[in-house]
Amino acid sequence: PISHCQPGLTPIQLDHRRPAQPCLYTGGLSARQLGDLDDLANSMVVDAYLDIDSHKMSDRFRSSRHLRRYWRKVIERFCCDTDYDAAYHSLVFGDPISGQKCCLDEAAQRDPNLRLHLFRYLHLFDPRSGVQIQRCDRYRHEQGMGARIVSTRDWQAGESVSMLIGCAAELTPDEELHYLRPGVNDFSVIYSSRRQRSQLWLGPAAYINHDCEPNVELALQPATGSGAALHFYRTIRPIKRGQEVLLYYGPDFFGPGNCQCECETCELRGSGAFARTAAAASKPAPPSASPPLAPTCSPAAVLPVPPASLPQSAAPVASHQQCLNGSATTAAEAPRRRPSYSLRDTAV
Questions:
Q1: Domain range for 110
Q2: Helix extents (H) in 43-181
Q3: Under 8 Å between Cβ of 108 and 117
Q4: Where in the cell does this protein reside (predicted)?
Q5: Residue 345 lies in a domain
């Protein structure tokens, strides 16, 4: 577990300073509002703590790099005392003792949605969550600037990872055409077959990476009474402490047959993006022969029927513009700032 306690400071249990329950997202924000909210909260917590520049929904968003060191110290202290209220006030309002001021405007400082969204990101550093976020350097296109979700305890199959939260906001047809920009900010879209509409999927849970042998699935808790339906992650096999939390995106998500997939399972099998390496090692080409070609992914491929590991309410689909163009080339094929093969990298 993360530990950055200063000398003489030990982790404490103060339930009155913690939310009684995970800060689940129950809706109420438009896709644009959720995008702006996530850009800010993600920058203040994940970017600051890992010192990365994650992908953002708004191309006009600029992270306050001069505040990163201060925000990181706030997160490190939170790892020791898990005081949500103190961390929130320090992140948003600054520290009057040291004279550190934050650059947020008054509207952001008073926004209750920002408070809750920051709490969702702080869950990643709460020992009760059973997970934490770490840097990831597995994927070549990320150039050592990726991230992954790692377990901090042993999980049994069938458990709900309740403090790893994603937030969905429905996209209007106009937002699909004008707010989403292919290859720029269409990195986290799911399709709800239940509501017959695309949804923006953001929050800390969007950092879960893909693997062809996953250990969690995205499930749906149906709405009850006046409450909203909630998405959550459920373990489908045991996860040991220190192992990465992994989700299956679909059989053709990274090209036909996942021919461009760089997950660990594909590396072990010699499949996906590693198929050429495996073939070359098992059967050396004659001196006069041309080197073996990499698997070809058709540019006209579109994403198929959702896999069994995802509920109908969260089926992987190509972005709207990709469907119009007849292309489902994923954003993971090009260098992106959003970490790893996660829901933040590719349209899902």
A1: 15-282+298-333
A2: 48-50, 68-81, 84-93, 106-109, 112-122, 173-178
A3: no
A4: Chromosome; Nucleus
A5: no
Q: Is 45 domain-assigned?
A: yes
Q: How many residues does the chain have?
A: 348
Task: Establish if 290 belongs to a structural domain.
Answer: no
Contact between 148 and 341 (Cβ < 8 Å): no
> Who's near 120: CB < 8 A, 6+ residues apart?
22, 23, 25, 41, 165, 167, 203, 204
211 in any annotated domain: yes
Phi then psi dihedrals of residue 95, to 5 deg: -120, 105
Joined together, the tokens standing for residue 342 give 């996660």
Report the C-alpha gap between 232 and 25 in whole angstroms. 10
Q: Which residues contact 234 (CB under 8 A, 6 or more apart)?
A: 158, 159, 160, 161, 216, 217, 219
pLDDT tens over the chain, length 348 residues: 444 444 333 444 444 467 767 888 878 899 999 999 999 999 999 999 999 888 888 888 887 778 999 999 999 999 999 999 999 999 999 987 777 888 788 889 999 999 999 999 999 999 999 999 999 988 776 665 689 999 999 999 999 999 999 998 999 989 988 898 887 888 788 777 777 888 898 999 999 999 999 999 988 776 555 556 677 899 999 999 999 999 998 888 788 989 989 999 999 999 999 997 666 666 665 555 444 444 445 433 333 333 334 443 343 433 333 332 333 333 332 222 333 334 443 333
Q: Which amino acid is at 101?
A: K
State the Cα–Cα distance between residues 183 and 321, nearest whole angstrom: 10
Closest of 19, 218, 246 to residue 128, by C-alpha:
19
What is the DSSP secondary structure assignment for residue 43, as one 8-state letter?
Answer: I
Distances (CA, A) of 261 to 16, 61, 248, 323: 45, 30, 11, 21
The Cα–Cα gap between 280 and 302 comes to: 29
Distances (CA, A) of 85 to 14, 90, 93, 302: 11, 9, 12, 46
* Domain total of the chain: 1
CATH of the domain at 160: 2.170.270.10
Contact criterion met (CB below 8 Å) for 316 and 306: yes
